[in-house]
Amino acid sequence: MARKLVITSGKGGVGKTTICANLGSRLAHTKNKVCVLDVDIGLNNLDVVMGIEQNIVYDIIDCIEGRCRLKQALIQDKNEPYLYILPSTQSLHSSKITKNQIKSVVDELSSIFDYILIDCPAGIDLGFHRAVFSASEAIVVTTPHISAIKDASKVVDILSTYELFSYKLVINRARGDLMAGNEMLSVTDISNLFDIELIGVIPEDDNISLALNKGEAINPASLAGKAFVQLADNIRYNTNKIYNYQKDYRGILGYIKRKIKRNI
């Protein structure tokens, strides 16, 4: 049976979909069968991020309403043969879909895959509860910004009311230069605000935007790519080793790099 992880945050724009896609790619690269599932019905973005929007024939609503078999709607990733995407739809109002219908799809996928990553809608409304109801584990995503941290904290409180096996924290868009210079909340400061385990820090990296524009996963040799590799390892092996995203900004040379970066 698959591990079913919902990627959530409470606030939009913190990078849930990007993390879902890249984490799925790294897990699949180790020959685990992975399905990434978009349940943001009506406002789907996962297909665009993964570059498969032109390949969609059937979507999750077609599966729920019986117009196709589940395997017919799955789209294989163009670069990772063990990675599949189940797209959402823009054509149906989300209130027509129930949490039990989503859970039925996820449970059927569970017999096929090793990991199911559920891309959760922003907010804490119906779409959020549909996604969490279908999961057994949760990854809460925040950025180092106060508004994102506050919303993520609210999500953690709600997750505690569900019977999840675990819920853990990922900090996205960490600026190593600003954190090293004490100009941004540090990872330790942010982590201390949550009573859950930190399992990943993804640094701000222009390579993410470049990859998104191509509909591809980020290069694993890049700064953020290395952090995604470590995040995937933490999930696979139940560890919490954090990639050292500040190492280039420590010491005298690091100070110079911070100053140069601020003036570019």
Explain briefly what this protein structure is:
With about 260 residues, the protein is α/β, with parallel strands linked by helices.
Structure description:
- The mean pLDDT is 91.
- The chain is 41% helix and 16% strand.
- The radius of gyration is 18 Å and the shape is globular.
- The chain has helices at 16-29, 46-49, 60-64, 70-73, 99-110, 126-133, 146-159, 176-180, 187-192, 206-214, 223-237, 251-263; strands spanning 3-8, 34-38, 75-76, 83-86, 115-119, 137-142, 166-174, 198-203.
- The protein starts with a strand and ends with a helix.
- It has one domain: Rossmann fold, CATH 3.40.50.
- Helix 7 links the parallel strand 6 (137-142) and strand 7.
- The chain has twelve helices and eight strands.
- With 264 residues, the protein is an alpha/beta fold.
- Helix 1 (16-29) packs across helix 11 and helix 5 runs parallel beside helix 6 (126-133).
- Strands 3-4-2-5-1-6-7-8 form an eight-stranded mixed sheet, with helices on both faces.
Helix content estimate: 40-55%
What value does the average pLDDT take?
A: 91
With strands numbered from the N-terminus, the spatial order across the biggest sheet is 3-4-2-5-1-6-7-8
CATH class assignment: Alpha Beta
Structural domains: how many:
1
Large-scale geometry: globular
End-to-end separation in angstroms reads 49 Å
Strand tally, please? 8
